[in-house]
Amino acid sequence: MNNQNSWHGRDIAPQRFRERTYIMGVLNVTPDSFSDGGQFNTKSAAIARAKSLIAGGADMIDIGGQSTRPGAEIIPLDEELNRVVPIVKALRLGDDENAPIPDRILISVDTFRADVAAAGIKAGANIINDITGGMGDAEMLPLVAKLGVPVILMHIRGTPQTMQQLTDYDDLIGEIYQFFQERIEAAIACGVNREQIIIDPGIGFAKTFDQNLEIIRRLSEFKSLELPILIGASRKSFLGKILDQPDPKQRVWGTAAACCAAICNGANIVRVHDLPEMWDVCRVADAIWK
Questions:
Q1: Catalytic residue among 49, 183, 251, 271, which?
Q2: What residues pair up with 63 in beta bridges, in sequence order?
Q3: Nearest CA-CA partner of 216 in 194, 242, 196, 191
Q4: Which residues pair with residue 60 across a beta bridge?
Q5: What are 5-22's pLDDT values in tens digits?
Q6: How distant, in Å, are the alpha carbons of 97, 104, 226, 237, 263 from that of 233?
Q7: Is 157 a catalytic residue?
Q8: Other residues' Cβ atoms within 10 Å of the Cβ of residue 127
Q9: Res 9: pLDDT
Q10: What are the tens digits of pLDDT across the range 154-181?
Q11: Is 10 a catalytic residue?
């Protein structure tokens, strides 16, 4: 079923992904995310960051309270809830100090826990972004079906603690494709509307340097699944290796090149930290390829 939290009737809808690239701005309300941990883990800083992303051109704000960098420890459920829910509520409903963000801006909750997803949607979020493709919590896909909200299913092997030891593929693209087929079928079997599913091949999650490049190079092979494709290459370590740049914040133009290549090869949504720079990249890339 669909409810007011779905994207039906909004400016963003599946059929519109062919028209232009949509931008998801990253809002990490964590102390330990790989590029900006600790910068936005207070309410005032998080809200200011969200407003900056929106002013820069973001269509969606992706709020995460659990770091998913390689080796990140899993925090207690209550801690994740306390990090995420107040920020969602303040952005969507406003508070004494802040007006609510525009309805056209979608809020995504980056979590693999069904309880966090449910609380986030109740607080006013619109999308669930699950890095485990619905495998991290058996209640996630039934919850998505019940709420009728869009879900992002990402490819991963293992967990953030183990994923970088699980990069041995016989057929990288074929195995990711099969993963998506299985997770899409599992979601539909739980009652999720296929039109509400987005896929993300998981750049940097159980992938080597060369594998990340191969995914972007061959991204168009996932288009036959006929679902929107999200790419999250922003500031990641493979860019640092290419650029010989250890500081993630200095990988802006490496991110730009990766986003441009991804759009050329079929990406519909890019998840990024740097706005308005990536807004410019997306608009020019769209003018050429869309």
A1: 271
A2: 27, 109
A3: 242
A4: 24, 106
A5: 565 545 666 667 888 999
A6: 34, 25, 21, 9, 12
A7: no
A8: 27
A9: 46
A10: 999 988 888 888 899 999 999 999 999 9
A11: no
> Encoding tokens for residue 148?
């009728």
What tokens appear for 243 in the block? 């650029």
* End-to-end C-alpha distance for the chain, whole angstroms: 31
Measure the CA–CA gap between 21 and 12, rounded to whole angstroms: 11
Query: Residue 226 burial (CB < 10 Å; 0-12/13-18/19+)?
Result: exposed
Which tokens sit at 51? 């407003």
| Secondary structure (H, E, C), 239-252 | HHHHHCCCCHHHCH
Tokens 């909750």 locate to 109
* Assigned token pair, 167: 């990069």
Per-residue DSSP letter, 194: G
CA distance linking residue 46 with residue 10, whole number of Å = 25
Q: Cβ distance 148 to 2 under 8 Å?
A: yes
> Coil, strand or helix: which one is 287?
helix
Q: What is the pLDDT of residue 91?
A: 96
Which structural domains are found in the chain, ordered by start? 20-289 (3.20.20.20)
User: Residue 91: how many CA atoms within 13 Å on its side-chain side?
Assistant: 34
Of 113, 183, 207, 236, the catalytic one is 236
Q: Which pair of tokens denotes residue 260?
A: 């441009």
CB 270 within 8 A of CB 263: yes
| Closest residue by Cα to residue 233 from 195, 198, 194, 207 | 207
Tell me how far apart the alpha carbons of residues 190 and 144 are, in angstroms, rounded to a whole number.
9
Q: What does the block give as tokens for 128?
A: 């669930």
Residue 9 in contact with residue 15, Cβ under 8 Å? no
Gap between the Cα atoms of 101 and 196, Å rounded: 23
Angle at 278 between CA 197 and CA 249, to 5 degrees: 105
Provide the residue type at 148 as one letter: G
